[in-house]
Amino acid sequence: xxxxxxxxxxxxxxxxxxxxxxxxxxxxxxxxxxxxxxxxxxxxxxxxxxxxxxxxxxxxxxxxxxxxxxxxxxxxxxxxxxxxxxxxxxx
Amino acid sequence: xxxxxxxxxxxxxxxxxxxxxxxxxxxxxxxxxxxxxxxxxxxxxxxxxxxxxxxxxxxxxxxxxxxxxxxxxxxxxxxxxxxxxxxxxxxxxxxxxxxxxxxxxxxxxxxxxxxxxxxxxxxxxxxxxxxxxxxxxxxxxxxxxxxxxxxxxxxxxxxxxxxxxxxxxxxxxxxxxxxxxxxxxxxxxxxxxxxxxxxxxxxxxxxxxxxxxxxxxxxxxxxxxxxxxxx
Lengths: 91, 231
Prior knowledge:
The structure holds 2 protein chains of 2 kinds.
Chain A: E1 6-8, E2 14-16, H1 30-37, H2 39-61, H3 64-88
Antiparallel strand pairs in A: 1-2
Helix pairs in contact in A: 2-3
Chain B: E1 10-14, E2 17-20, H1 21-39, H2 44-61, H3 65-85, H4 114-135, H5 137-142, H6 150-191, H7 198-227
Antiparallel strand pairs in B: 1-2
Helix pairs in contact in B: 1-3, 2-3, 3-7, 4-6, 4-7, 6-7
């Protein structure tokens, strides 16, 4: 009896594998290495960009707290969007 | 006294153009790179490195590897040389003046934010150019400006932010890791002068390699996603 004869089904139950179903092999590719080696900066960068842009525009137009708040909010949404993209797989 | 400066320091001017210590280090790296490229190109180690890099990028870019390999390979080699150059003895430890206001003669190339930022902007331009060339301008812009429904307008806006954040993420990843490593080594050597910084030096050699790999590999991944046609 081998481990490969069993499979985790859609309802997370363990059942016997049909002979037609293929065993999923673990993926070892460079995409994953690239993706997860830099995930911290990739996810955090929009927030940083928002802060920089907000500060720049505020200093330029002398509207001190307005644009930095707006751009931090946009940056946060961008951060979550990047996180969503990494989990979805279309990096 | 421990000398840590987050920005590169100016050594002298040439016709009003400020020459910083990291600029001198960059020139040394570039000359070494040039010598290796011209006289070392037939050496078996150079060939082995180039070959393994090529087959490495081939797993990501497939049939477009030959087009982008000169860019990606030189990016990798330049970054790895610069990272390791900062670890050589003499870099950040030879000072021009003693006491207050002392300036090191050399500084690790990628430990100056300008270099990673320049590389990141270059990478960004190449990614956009390849996207426009292989997908078509109209199709490529559709990713960013899409007026089908309000949701896709918003998603397009987020895509623009995500695209520009690549510059920041590239630049700060490289700068942060290398600069932090150099500060770490300086602090450890300041605390315990003998042998204690050796394991950290070995770690930094590894980090330098990994950062060069990540930078070039992420470029390859972004290139391949930019060139992929949307369904």
